[in-house]
């Protein structure tokens, strides 16, 4: 497919403005692959035409769809197992003690993609029902991608998705067949609230958190956007709250609002 | 280096699995039915068995049951790998002692993920 450099730059600019992410010049070929289904669905015959249609804020729904198609939604259940399991092995016990009075725990999965991360947290919570007897656990997943949020809410996963990181016993306990796919059972879905949200915007109204998971999101952001996002996460995190980043992400040199926990990898506390 | 015994009556599946497992740094052995797999396990137990369900001579399920009473010194981890993806089959496999379960078709990431769940990758 013939596409002009100006068009590619146009999509890269749109993507950067909306998400804070740079589409590196060397990766712009991805644009074509990623947008091809969109062209087909909207019966547009070239990327240049598509660029024309979204230019100057013309068709905002179409622009949203372009941005959505360019996002990398890669995720899996219990991703980065060892770091992630620190939640159930150490952090949940700490918060169960620290919040014994209010019996309220608020967890935010910021950039939750198609929901696997939030459902994994929910399954870990559900594994110790006695600990949380009578508690109000508020588990919120947000993502910029409307497509990802719709899938997360449905809780429907392909055979490939359901077999990434999810132990077979958990699959049997928490999911049921849905044609070729597997769907989170209603009692798992009821444990998580998903909503669309752009992390470049102020945090969702009224949201406060004891634990924030923001994993494999920062790494895509330009440095100034990262700083901005750390500040915004800090603004909703409880004083004794924790932030979990993805493997290979850090606050070091990015923000002085957080410091690494001295005993747990990938865990950060408010400075 | 860990050893994985691939048990499947399909030569194509064995070849695909072998290729993926070798990229995951496994030493790979093959058997084309449960009987042959059992013989191999008694001779030298692998670390993990990737096990088809439907095979001539001896099925995966029969192999799994026989493995339990075979007196192999070190029981390998058993990961079913089958087109049977109904809950009844999966439940039966777990009840019979399977450690993990792969629903075919699989790709590299599926195998890697399931092997890591049984502590092998
Ligand atoms: C690679 S996925 C990681 C998902 C999950 N947290 C994990 O670690 O498996 C990154 C997610 O961040 C989302 N994302 C990227 N930029 C965003 C933004 N500005 N606001 C909200 N979500 C964003 C993407 O849509 C994508 O779903
Ligand atoms: Mg077969």
Write a structural description:
- The complex is a heterodimer of chains A (271) and B (121).
- With 271 residues, chain A is of the alpha/beta class.
- Chain A folds into two domains: 66 residues, no CATH class; 190 residues, Vaccinia Virus protein VP39 (Rossmann fold).
- Chain A is 42% helix and 19% strand.
- In chain A, the strands form two sheets. Chain A has a seven-stranded mixed sheet, with helices on both faces.
- In chain A, strand 1, helix 7 and strand 2 form a beta-alpha-beta unit.
- In chain A, helix 1 crosses helix 4.
- Chain A is globular and about 60 Å long.
- The mean pLDDT of chain A is 94.
- Chain B is an alpha/beta fold and 121 residues long.
- Chain B has one domain: Response regulator (Rossmann fold), CATH 3.40.50.2300.
- Chain B contains five helices and five strands.
- Chain B has a five-stranded parallel sheet with strand order 2-1-3-4-5, sandwiched between helices.
- In chain B, helix 2 runs parallel beside helix 3.
- The longest helix of chain B is centred in the first third of the chain and has 13 residues.
- The radius of gyration of chain B is 13 Å and the shape is globular.
- Chains A and B meet through helix 10 of A and helix 4, strand 5 and helix 5 of B.
- The complex binds S-adenosylmethionine and magnesium ion.
- Magnesium ion binds next to loops of chain B.
- Chain B: InterPro entries: CheY-like_superfamily, Sig_transdc_resp-reg_receiver, ST_Response_Regulator.
- Chain B: Keywords: Phosphoprotein.
- Chain B: This is Response regulator.
- Chain B: One of its GO terms (biological process) is phosphorelay signal transduction system.
- Chain A: This is Protein-glutamate O-methyltransferase CheR.
């Amino acid at each position: 497919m013939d596409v002009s450099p100006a068009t590619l730059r146009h999509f890269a600019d749109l993507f950067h403005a909306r998400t804070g992410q740079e589409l590196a010049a060397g990766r712009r070929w991805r644009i074509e692959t990623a947008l091809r289904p969109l062209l087909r669905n909207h019966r547009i015959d070239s990327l240049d035409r598509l660029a024309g249609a979204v230019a100057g804020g013309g068709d905002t729904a179409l622009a949203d769809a372009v941005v959505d198609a360019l996002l990398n939604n890669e995720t899996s259940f219990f991703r980065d197992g060892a770091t992630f399991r620190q939640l159930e092995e150490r952090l949940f016990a700490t918060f169960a003690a620290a919040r014994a009075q209010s019996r309220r725990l608020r967890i935010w999965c910021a950039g939750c993609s198609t929901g696997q991360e939030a459902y994994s947290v929910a399954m870990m919570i559900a594994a110790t029902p006695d600990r949380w007897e009578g508690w109000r656990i508020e588990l919120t997943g947000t993502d910029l991608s409307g497509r990802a949020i719709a899938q997360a809410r449905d809780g429907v996963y392909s055979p490939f998705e359901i077999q990434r990181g999810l132990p077979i016993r958990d699959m049997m306990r928490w999911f049921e067949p849905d044609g070729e796919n597997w769907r989170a059972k209603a009692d798992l879905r009821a444990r998580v609230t998903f909503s669309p949200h752009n992390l470049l915007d102020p945090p969702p109204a009224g949201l406060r958190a004891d634990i924030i998971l923001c994993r494999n999101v920062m790494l895509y952001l330009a440095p100034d956007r990262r700083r901005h996002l750390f500040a915004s996460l800090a603004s909703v995190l409880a004083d004794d709250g924790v932030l979990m980043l993805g493997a290979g992400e850090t606050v070091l040199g990015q923000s002085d609002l957080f410091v690494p926990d001295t005993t747990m990898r990938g865990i950060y506390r408010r400075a | 280096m860990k050893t994985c015994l691939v048990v499947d009556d399909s030569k194509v599946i064995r070849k695909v699995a072998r290729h993926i497992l070798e990229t995951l740094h496994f030493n790979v052995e093959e058997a084309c039915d449960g009987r042959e797999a059992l013989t191999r396990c008694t001779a030298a137990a692998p670390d993990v068995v990737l096990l088809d369900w439907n095979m001539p001579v001896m099925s995966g399920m029969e192999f799994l049951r026989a493995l339990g009473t075979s007196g192999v010194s070190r029981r390998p981890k058993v990961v079913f790998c089958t087109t049977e993806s109904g809950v009844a089959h999966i439940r039966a496999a777990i009840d019979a002692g399977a450690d993990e379960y792969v629903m075919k078709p699989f790709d590299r990431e599926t195998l890697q993920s399931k092997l890591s769940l049984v502590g092998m990758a």
